Amino acid sequence: MNESIVLEAKGLYKVFGRRPQEAVKKLAAGQSREELSKMGTAAVIDASFQVRRGEIFVVMGLSGSGKSTLIRMLNGLLPATAGQVSVSGTDLVGISDKALRKLRQQKISMVFQHFALMPHRTVLENAAYALEVQGIDRAEREARALKVLKLVGLEGWEQKYPGQLSGGMKQRVGLARALAAETDILLMDEAFSALDPLIRREMQEQLITLQRELGKTIIFITHDLNEAMLLGDRIAMMHDGRIVQIGSPDEILKQPTNDYVEQFVQDVDRTRVLTAGVVMDSTPDHVTAASLPGATTVSEDAPLADILGLAADSRRPLAVVDGDDHVIGSVGQETLLSALSNSAPAAESAAVTKAPGGDATDRTAHNSAEGIQ
């Protein structure tokens, strides 16, 4: 396996029922899951993908799409009916129970939707539990657990019990437990879906911050497209057991592979997905930002939501710069309007339209920009 690939799935099938192997053969020959319903339920059909080291790979799908079954096949909780899963070069097919337990302890850990905390153990003991299972002595496991509890914002809560915590705090403990294990891969199955919207957004931002610092490989399962677009470096879209498209958020948004994906992305918040670098008009020659006195510069990675107000305040196109402060393109009001043409045009038009010298229009622009952030 390529060293940059830490997990690979090839032709994965999972069929629940009386004749799973026969069902797999018929599915491979082109029959639909509905035609084979009497043989069993085809939860995952011919799933193939690779996960790169250090990326957040999101598996996105509605209820019944097969995403939760798929993630449980990636750490051996469910054996595949057919196909292969390889984790850091180790094939899970035919692996012994002992070897599978060792792989889970060292290579792949999981964060569950409903926290899965032990109520009779403290926050510290819950966070250190995976290390206890590994046989690590108490002093070391508590030191490692304290470190990650601080990372997830739970410093000072170590001696509390799960019953004393909010839902968001409980999920932070679950995340800390997975991080303390120091495995290569984190599996997160609908990890934030049980939280209320404000706490959910806070946890999403916390995960992005942690990822910048730790660079983990994360496979994240969700039914929420906006969450997928916010978190994912790449997204695998599932429908009726099959992966129908894999791509970056902007690729899926701008180049949907079929009608199902196209309909799915119609209502996504494009201001959070598209970046200045994606929508900019290219500049032929690289020049430094310093050579453009008075120009407002923005990073190529800046979401459009973060630059709408700047565009409203600027009479000139915004200069888009790369990490070396080279101007690589520009974003003007027409470019923004074109990029946002498929989502909430009235609010977004107000955010990037400014009458010369008009204070009232300025306020409208700022208020519109704030309202969609």
Q: Can you offer a commentary on this structure?
A:
With 373 residues, the chain is of the alpha/beta class. It has two domains: 53-267, 3-Layer(aba) Sandwich (Rossmann fold); 273-371, CBS-domain (Roll). The chain is built from 17 helices and 14 strands. The chain has helices at residues 20-28, 67-74, 97-106, 123-127, 129-133, 138-151, 167-180, 197-214, 225-231, 249-254, 259-264, 270-273, 276-279, 308-313, 333-339, 345-352, 359-371, and strands spanning 5-17, 40-52, 56-60, 82-87, 90-91, 108-111, 185-189, 217-222, 234-239, 242-247, 281-288, 297-299, 318-321, 326-331. The strands form three sheets. The protein has a six-stranded mixed β-sheet with strand order 6-7-8-3-9-10, with helices on both faces. A four-stranded antiparallel β-sheet has the order 2-1-4-5, with helices on both faces. Helix 14 links the parallel strand 12 (297-299) and strand 13. Helix 16 (345-352) packs across helix 17. It starts with a strand and ends with a helix. The model is unreliable at 343-373 (pLDDT under 50).
Primary descriptors:
single chain, 373 residues, alpha/beta, Rossmann fold, CBS-domain, six-stranded mixed sheet, four-stranded antiparallel sheet, 14 strands, 39% helix
